[in-house]
Amino acid sequence: MSNPPDSESPRATKQKSTYGSADSTLVEQIGAMPTSKNCLSCRIVGSGTFAGVGAYALWQSRAAAPGTPAQKRIVAGLGVALCVGSVIRWLQ
Q1: Mean pLDDT in each 10-residue stretch from start to end of the chain (92 residues)?
Q2: 0.85 exceeded by the pTM?
């Protein structure tokens, strides 16, 4: 038995991707993807969650909370970052 030529083998056929031809680059494929917008209730819940966790982290970084000063600085930085993230999420 002889092997079929490469052009006749099932593996040699080009398959199209969902967003364009198989030869397109990743940048073109990403550009072709639809952008998603969140509904208002999703933005409110997401922003509220970020703000709540950020506020809790800031509360845990207070002077009376247990932990070393270095740990409190890390938690305070995390709290500020989460609060800023909630504002950015709301504005998107």
Answers
A1: 56 54 64 70 91 95 91 95 92 82
A2: no
